[in-house]
Amino acid sequence: MTALFMVRARVADAAMKDAFDRWYGHEHLPDALKAFKARRAWRGWSDVDTCVHYAWYEFEDLASANAIVGSEAFKRLVADFDRAWGDNVARSRDFVAIVQSMEA
Length: 104
Hints:
The protein has three helices and four strands.
């Protein structure tokens, strides 16, 4: 069943938010989508904490999602992120197996 790779990033300084948004939207998300060979990717900003950004990458299954960890593509993307943002953006990652889906 479908799985998601989720990245939560918190921009330390709100003044950096626009630059981060442009970089993630124009460079990082398209690059990661291609490198991970994900089905699709999307992202958004939290309405609760406006400095928190989420990105999701969809995979066929959990094994496919977990396979990106340790890959050369993953290492390169992490290094690119660190080079661009250093300690100014804290992030965490999670993998989620979709166990149920419904539509109205």
